[in-house]
Every structure is written in structure tokens, then in C-alpha cells.
Design a protein that fits this description.
The chain is of the alpha+beta class and about 240 residues long. The protein has a single domain (about 5-240), classed as CNF1/YfiH-like putative cysteine hydrolases (4-Layer Sandwich), CATH 3.60.140.10. It has helices at about 40-50, 125-130, 130-140, 165-175, 190-200, 225, and strands spanning about 5, 10-15, 65, 75, 90, 100-105, 105-110, 115-120, 150, 180, 185-190, 205-210, 230-240. The strands form 3 sheets. A 6-stranded mixed sheet has the order 4-5-8-7-9-12. Strand 10 and strand 11 form a beta hairpin. The two termini are about 20 Å apart.
């Protein structure tokens, strides 16, 4: 059984890389179809995830999976789409429609108010382009009440060396908290701090964190650490 946290009207689960069917280098609970893993094996993994998230639909085709493209589009949905459309988030006010964001260093962000929720994927490109703002706007448009958020596991600044010019540009957009330092003293992107700053600028002040670092936590997938690898997931479902 996966651990979960409740925020607003939603329940949020975070997966690890453990317990699935995929073979190295995707071992083992890989949820991505675009990284070279066998598609039937990924299907088995999504079926397993559906069985582990208590109270969710047992058929993965009733879940919302999207193909993240490091952009800003957040789909507003009342049912699961066919396949995996391109988007970096999904939002709904429908009870029992699980929304999934996947990644292997980028951050999954869950948002929910009293009657709507969203699952957002953000790396530095999405952060710069405004995907956090789009996610907040979608939840506000679909639901009512104060938005709460939780930032899932992502790469931490000590392991995320970043070019100084790009870092300064990001800081001019989301604020100086995004500027970090690696363990050897090089400029680094603090992705989590940048996302928190973007949420605060949208008026979202109730922000939780799963502070695990994908690079340093071996139970999580990390593209920067491993190169060819799988993707873990975050599931967000309106449950009331």
C-alpha cells in the first residue's frame, strides 16, 4: 500500500521506482511509455499502481496520463482522454478521476481546493514559462475555496548544477530563492524553492513538501544521475 496525504478535496500518492515489473535500466515501477521500456510492461506497472491506490478505478484507461513536454498547458478534464495527450498538467472537479504526473528529477506538484484538484509537472522550463500559474488558474476556475499544494520529490540544488546566465534569468522571473549552490560550490538551480516562490506569487500559501531528492535517493528514478531510466509518479484524485 502506498502512503498518501490529503489536501483539500484530494488524496495524493507518490510512487517510487520499487515493486514493478520493468527490467534494468527501468527497474522497476516505471510509469513512462516514452523512455524505451516495453509498453506491455509499463501497462502492467500502471495496473499495479491502480491496485495500490486504494479507492481508485482499477482500469488504468480510466486514469489521466499525459505526455509532459516542458510547457505550460494544463488540461481541464471531466473524463480520461484517449492515450497520453501532450500537456504538463491536468485538472478536474470530478470525484474519482485520478490525475498522474510523472518525472525523474522534475517536480510533481499537487494542488487542490474544496472542489477541484490538479497534478502538475514542472522542470526549469515549465517554471520559467509559467506552468505553476496555469495550474493555479485551472483549479480556481474549476473549484472553490483556498488552494493548498504539495511539492513532490525532485532533484535538489546540491545535485543540480546550472548555468549562471540561465539561473539569473530564472531568478528575474520567479525570484532569487531559485539561486542555489551545488555541493562543490557551483551555481545551482533550487527547483523546489522556485516552485514555492511561484506558488506564493499566485497567492497559494499552504504549501507542503515531500523533501526527498531524486538524485540522492536510490529508491527514486533520476535522469541526471542515471541517464536512461524510468519515471516515478504522483497521483492526485478528488475523493470528496
Amino acid at each position: 500500500m502506498l502512503n498518501y496525504v490529503d489536501i483539500g478535496c484530494a488524496r495524493v500518492w507518490f510512487t517510487t521506482r520499487l515493486g514493478g515489473s520493468s527490467q534494468p535500466p527501468y527497474d522497476s515501477l516505471n510509469l513512462a511509455t516514452h523512455v524505451g521500456d516495453d509498453h506491455l510492461t509499463v501497462r502492467r506497472n500502471t495496473e499495479l499502481l491502480a491496485s495500490l491506490c486504494e479507492g481508485t478505478p482499477s482500469d488504468p484507461d480510466a486514469w489521466v496520463y499525459v505526455n509532459h513536454v516542458h510547457g505550460v498547458e494544463v488540461l481541464r478534464l471531466d473524463e480520461a482522454p484517449a492515450g497520453r495527450p501532450d500537456a504538463d498538467g491536468a485538472a478536474t472537479n470530478v470525484v474519482g478521476l485520478p490525475l498522474v504526473a510523472i518525472g525523474a528529477d522534475c517536480a510533481p506538484i499537487a494542488m487542490a481546493n474544496d472542489t477541484a484538484c490538479a497534478a502538475i509537472h514542472s522542470g526549469w522550463r515549465g517554471l520559467e514559462a509559467g506552468v505553476i500559474s496555469e495550474g493555479v488558474a485551472a483549479v480556481r476556475a474549476l473549484g472553490t475555496g483556498k488552494i493548498k499544494a504539495i511539492i513532490g520529490p525532485c532533484i535538489s540544488a546540491p545535485h543540480y548544477e546550472f548555468g549562471a546566465q540561465d539561473l539569473n534569468r530564472l531568478a528575474s522571473i520567479v525570484g532569487p530563492s531559485v539561486i542555489g549552490e551545488t555541493s562543490n560550490g557551483s551555481p545551482a538551480l533550487d527547483l523546489r524553492a522556485g516552485i514555492r516562490s511561484a506558488l506564493l506569487s499566485e497567492g497559494v500559501t499552504d504549501i507542503g513538501d515531500d523533501l526527498r531528492c531524486t538524485f540522492s535517493e536510490q529508491s527514486l528514478f533520476s535522469f541526471r544521475r542515471d541517464g536512461v531510466t524510468g519515471r516515478q509518479g504522483m497521483v492526485v484524485e478528488r475523493v470528496r
